[in-house]
Structures are given as structure tokens and as C-alpha cells.
Amino acid sequence: MKMSRPLLLIGCGKMGSAMLSGWLESGIAGGGVHVVEPVGAPAEFDGVADVNVVADMAALPADLNPEVVVFAVKPQQMDDVALGYQKYVGAETAFLSIAAGMDIAYFQSNLGDGAAIIRAMPNTPAAIGQGITVCCSNAAASDDQRELCRSLLAATGEAVVVDDEGLIDAVTAVSGGGPAYVFLLIECLAAAGVAAGLPVDLSQRLALITVAGSGQLALASEEPPATLRENVTSPGGTTLEALKILMADDGLAPLMTRAIAAATERSRELAG
Predict the structure, then answer these.
(1) What is residue 176's DSSP assignment?
(2) Fold of 7-168
(3) How many CB atoms lie under 10 A from the CB of residue 50?
(4) Residues 90-131: pLDDT tens digits?
(5) Where are the domains of the chain?
(6) How far is CA 248 from CA 209, 244, 251, in A?
(7) Which class is 176-271 in CATH?
(8) Cα separations (Å) of 58 from 54, 63, 92, 231?
(9) Which residues on neighbouring strands pair with residue 221, listed in sequence order?
(10) CA 198 to CA 190: how far, in whole Å?
(11) CA 19 from chain center: how many Å?
């Protein structure tokens, strides 16, 4: 799917820049991209054909008719931003938000019930094209608009569409916050290696590459993670001794369940 009208990107920080890079590489933004970013877009976009960067919306072309407006600003900035783009509301324009905790009702209250709104929850690996994003829409969005926004999100990794917006809170907890949990795992594994006598640099490298490689193996394998775990675990071996602790009744599984439940509840609170 290729756009025939311009795309309007509001905010060009880390996530906005990652998406813009993906769109330019894929060629999906056939109508060009207008970017509103007060501090200017990253230098990598200077002089790029069909990319117009302005400091505020007043500098946008008066006759601009965007096919999609993408909100990529921080949630705490949204109150100062969203209402100003109400003038673009129409049956042929979709509004895509990647702001965590900002639900569809929020955008409908600012843009109107007739606005086609797609809410998305990406994660930080999108910055290297390895992210996963889950999105949902309101009833005003057409099937074509949903698919177009899914394609835009897929430029930075995998994109999944769900019908139930209520799932986004758990999505936020699992995949939105997931990278932080994995980074903590790397930290803890490295620290445990040091406690076991390994040099710091070696232990950190072992932990990092082991986690990264295991993730790639899980993606490439047709076996479920449980089977892959069993394949590494020899009867009476060293891995089994570690797993006896990690898989105890008070081990990793209940800890992770509590952590995800807490993050899910916080996401609901933020959405109001």
C-alpha cells in the first residue's frame, strides 16, 4: 500500500524519527511527509526529498490535505497539540497516535466523534526496525485506513491489529514495557556472573549476547519457548539446578505475573 496524499508527522523524537526512516526506506509515503518539530528533525533528514520540516503547524502549507496525521509527541505534551489539528478532520484523513496512555476517547474529545482514530502501542526496538506494535481504531476509521496505518507501523517491525481497545493496557505492560524487563534480565544475569567470579566485562558480554541470541533463536525456531528451554536442560545438570530456583513457587513466573498486573493497572489509571 502506497499513500497518494501527504503524511503529517507531529513530533520527530526517537520514535518519530524511527518511523520516518522506515517510511522513507519502504516508499510508503508516496505523497511526501510534512514534519512538525519545534527543535527540528534529526540531521539525517536534512535535504531529503519530499520531507518538509517546520517548527510549528502555522508554517504548514495552507492547502495541506494529509492522508494520515501521526501524533508522535510525549503524552504530557498532547494537551497542547491535539486540538490544533482538528481542522484536518474528515472522512479521508486518519489520525494515528503512538502516545502511551492516551485512549481513543481522549482524541475523540479533542478532534470530534467523526475523526478516524487509530491508537497504537509500539516499543523501543522499533528504533532499529525490530519492534512490535499493536493498534486498534474507533468506528469512524475505515478498513482501508486501518490497513494503511498498520502498514505505516509495520515499517518499524511487526504490527498487529486488535478490535478490543481494552487489550492495549496489557499490551502496554507486556511489549511496551517489555524491553525494560529484558534489559533488567541482562543486568541481573551479568551481576550474577560477576558474583560467581567472572570479570565484569566478560560477564556483561556473556549476558548481553546470550539474551540477544536466545531471542533470535526463539524467533527462528518452530518450537515453543518451553521446548527450547527443555532442550538446554540436561537431567542432573547445571541448568536444571538454576531452573529449580527460577521455577520455584516463588520464582520468576509469579513475580512476572505480579509485575505485568501492576503495569496493566497503571496503564488503566493513566488512561483515566
Answers:
(1) I
(2) Rossmann fold (3.40.50)
(3) 13
(4) 999 999 999 888 999 999 999 999 999 999 999 999 989 999
(5) 7-168, 176-271
(6) 26, 6, 5
(7) mainly alpha
(8) 9, 12, 22, 60
(9) none
(10) 9
(11) 10
